Amino acid sequence: MRNCIVVVDGSGTVIEAWTQWDKLFEGGGGPHKIRISPYDPEHHVWVINDARHQIYEFTNDGKQLVRTMGEADVAGNDETHFGRPQDIAWLPDGSLLVADGLGNSRVAKFDKNGKFLMAWGTRGNGPGQFSGPHGIATDRNRRVYVADRSNHRIQIFDENGKYLDQWPGLRQANDILISADQHVWVADGTNSKVLEYDQNGKLLYYWGTYGTFPGGFWELHQMSVDSEGNLYGADSFGGRVQKFTPRAGVDRAKLIGAPAPLMTKATP
After folding, report:
1. What three-state secondary structure class fits 110?
2. Exposed e or buried b for every residue in 79-110, given b needs 16+ CB within 10 A?
3. What is the CATH number for 247?
4. Are strands 116-120 and 34-36 parallel, antiparallel or unpaired?
5. What total number of domains does the chain contain?
6. To which H or E segment does residue 102 belong?
7. Does the residue 1 lie in any domain?
8. What stretch of H or E contains 53?
9. Helix or strand or coil: residue 150?
């Protein structure tokens, strides 16, 4: 396993390769998702290693492994183990929520120091149950959105796991992004679509088509937006990241809004 984590600029040029951490992913499929908490002034980088049941926290420059959660190659459904974790999200107080995952079908909650607080969910298709929770996000009201992939829906909870609602009708909900305007955007992977919802679950807009040509999707797996409104979409089967830039005069309501701004990075 080589070049597991790379850093690129807005033009796609590789500016860093964290090859010193390749050993963490040996025997697996490489990083599953990469996230940065909007509430962390140090902008630490979190990486999911689902095949080895671990989550890593790195300094922003990749020089230091700050924290490891989970035990390598040991799956479990308790306070210190994961079962193929898929994604992470944060609350403003730094609490960490883990979509755990393809093995455990639960959401696990930890405080900002990594202390286990609680978990909710069992395998099934009823309200509050999961089948492969693959993505997770939070809004400004501290609601938790879970991409319940194999149940073809989004489920919504309060921060303590109380079931609130579900939005069915998806094919393969891989990722969730909540923009600063609090609209909910979903990557529907094998449907090759990006869908926009309001907070009440009303479908407002969707776009996308299958293809390996520029602009097509082949199992859209993760997406992100920068402060200029550029969309970055990672194709799982296509093995690529695409950048979509807003056209001049475009209807801004049909673009994914800017993300919640990151906290200002602390200065030495």
Report:
1. strand
2. eebbbbbbbbbbbeeebbbbbbbbbbbbbbbb
3. 2.120.10.30
4. unpaired
5. 1
6. none
7. no
8. none
9. helix
Single-letter residue type at 56: Y
- Let me know if residue 262 belongs to a domain: no
Do the domain assignments include residue 71?
yes
Closest by CA to 178, choosing from 162, 199, 157, is 199
- 236: containing domain: 20-254
Residues in CB range of 268: below 8 A, 6 or more apart: none
- Check residue 124 and give left, alpha or beta (phi > 0: left; psi -120 to 50: alpha): left
Q: Residues 66, 80: contact at Cβ < 8 Å?
A: no
Q: Is the pTM of this model over 0.85?
A: yes
CA distances from 259 to 7, 38, 216 (A): 19, 9, 23
pLDDT in tens, the chain (268 residues): 677 899 999 899 999 999 999 999 998 888 999 999 999 999 999 999 999 999 999 999 999 999 999 999 999 999 999 999 999 999 999 999 999 989 999 999 999 999 999 999 999 999 999 999 999 999 999 999 999 999 999 999 999 999 999 999 999 999 999 988 889 999 999 999 999 999 999 999 898 999 999 989 999 999 998 888 788 999 989 899 999 887 777 666 556 655 555 556 554 4
Residue-wise DSSP of 23-42: GGGTTS-----EEE-TT-TT
Q: Which candidate, 156, 219, 163, places its Cα nearest to that of 184?
A: 156
CA 169-170-171 angle, 5° bins: 125
User: Is 260 within a domain?
Assistant: no
